[in-house]
Task: inverse folding
């Protein structure tokens, strides 16, 4: 930390006495400059402690001299007494007090060189401390980036190093935040992000100062660093280091993600081509854990951005890969819930599910799931099962009168219950079957809580006296609901 006027005045060996500016003695001293010129502005940069014996100053010239020093932005004035003046001119003290310029009286016994040495030592120590701080920060950020922390760890480390908060944007969307509560600042920075094309921009949308810095990555990413006080030299260097480290880490992650996706797409082709044994062996060799068959196979269609988000959301959770203009997923039965929840959260996606299938039957399952996904896309639904989609084709072979009679007899207990106004069991059952028994998706479509839907399905099971986990029973109920609803007439 830079030496301040207050700290210099507190050095008893120097014997300095504060005459004015007590309230602003925390100003840092950039350097010391002794001069007897009455107008030294041309030789000053601002922030200096100016030293003078006042050879050319008196009560008449002192007021103008003080105002020129204030205009030059000096940190303070050290006035040596005992040579040309026994005391500091009163007019100088009065003007300095009025202008807010600190004046330190320097006794005859204290040479100006002693003050210069004290400031020089402090500046050197400050520069050394800054260098050490930067070096340590660079090491910590680098270790974090190449270790298990990754980009998110770099952001957390940076926030601690600058004692502030950090956001990472991809375009105008916050993708990482440290701490997590810092996401709240994202909205206030969107307008500034639109103005920033490349490089650095410093803004103050609230009480904090925020540094916006573009990253050197394929996607447009911006780092935002917010602090209560402006960043010092070390802080700026640390942010620059973080920008470089993040750019490399993000590009490395992108390259690795692309390689993983290419591998999965290749494994998907092997599975579709009937080489399941080879595909699973490669998956196991490359660090993946092959799911145990039989599998559920899902295919999701939608805009490229939505498909990309789905792949990102499923990363590390299940096996998901690009399949042409779709996303294909396979795994144990519970994979349906995981993928459907992610698709519902992202929006704009339509999927089909087939299975359970064996490893040898994967190709057929994938084709069935894709056909069901296209049906879901045409009908604007989130998920349709292959069994449901195939069943619709069979309905056309059933006589409508016979189908309605079958439906009336099978669904009568539900209709009698619904007529009492105690719950819409028939519609709840239809929606639940339509969404392949997925509770959250069906409940969201019905606009009820999933616990409410569970209670309704349990009641329907009791009234029908049927096992709703049986594929055959589900198929019969689906045919009945379709017939009663006039799907084919």
Result:
């Amino acid at each position: 930390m830079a030496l301040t006027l207050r700290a210099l005045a507190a050095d008893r060996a120097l014997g300095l006495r504060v005459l004015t500016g007590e309230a602003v003695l925390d100003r840092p001293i950039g350097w010391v400059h002794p001069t007897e010129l009455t107008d030294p502005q041309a030789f000053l940069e601002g922030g200096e402690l100016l030293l003078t014996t006042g050879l050319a100053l008196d009560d008449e010239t002192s007021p103008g001299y003080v105002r020129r020093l204030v205009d030059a932005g000096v940190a303070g004035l050290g006035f040596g007494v005992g040579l040309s003046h026994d005391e500091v001119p009163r007019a100088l003290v009065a003007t300095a007090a009025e202008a807010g310029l600190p004046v330190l009286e320097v006794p005859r016994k204290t040479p100006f060189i002693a003050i210069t040495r004290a400031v020089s030592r402090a500046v050197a120590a400050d520069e050394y401390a800054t260098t050490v701080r930067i070096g340590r920060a660079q090491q910590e950020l680098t270790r974090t980036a190449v270790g298990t922390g990754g980009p998110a760890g770099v952001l957390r480390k940076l926030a601690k190093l600058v004692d502030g908060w950090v956001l990472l944007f991809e375009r105008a969307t916050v993708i990482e935040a440290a701490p997590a509560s810092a996401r709240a600042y994202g909205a206030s920075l969107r307008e500034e992000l639109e103005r920033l094309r490349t490089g650095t921009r410093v803004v103050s949308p609230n009480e904090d100062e925020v540094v916006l810095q573009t990253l050197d990555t394929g996607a447009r990413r911006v780092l935002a660093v917010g602090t209560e006080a402006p960043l010092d030299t070390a802080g700026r260097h640390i942010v620059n280091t973080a920008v470089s480290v993040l750019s490399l880490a993000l590009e490395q992650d992108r390259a690795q993600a692309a390689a993983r996706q290419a591998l999965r797409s290749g494994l998907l082709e092997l599975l579709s081509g009937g080489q399941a044994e080879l595909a699973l062996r490669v998956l196991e060799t490359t660090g993946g854990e092959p799911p145990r068959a039989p599998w559920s196979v899902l295919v999701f269609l939608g805009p490229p951005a939505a498909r990309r988000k789905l792949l990102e959301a499923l990363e590390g959770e299940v096996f998901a890969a690009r399949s042409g203009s779709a996303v294909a997923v396979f795994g144990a039965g519970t994979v349906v819930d995981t993928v459907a929840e992610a698709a519902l959260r992202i929006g704009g996606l339509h999927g089909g599910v087939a299975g359970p299938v064996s490893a040898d039957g994967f190709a057929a399952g994938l084709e069935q799931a894709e056909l069901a996904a296209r049906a879901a896309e045409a009908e604007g639904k989130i998920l349709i099962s292959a069994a449901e989609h195939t069943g619709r084709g069979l309905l056309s072979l059933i006589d409508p009168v016979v189908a309605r009679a079958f439906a009336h007899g099978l669904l009568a207990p539900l209709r009698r219950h619904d007529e009492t106004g105690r719950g819409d069991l028939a519609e709840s059952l239809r929606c639940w079957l339509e969404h392949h028994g997925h509770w959250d998706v069906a409940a969201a479509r019905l606009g009820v809580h999933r616990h409410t839907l569970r209670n309704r399905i349990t009641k329907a099971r009791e009234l029908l006296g049927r096992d709703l986990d049986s594929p055959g029973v589900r198929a019969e109920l689906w045919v009945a609901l379709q017939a009663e609803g006039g799907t084919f007439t």
Q: What stands out?
A: The mean pLDDT is 85.
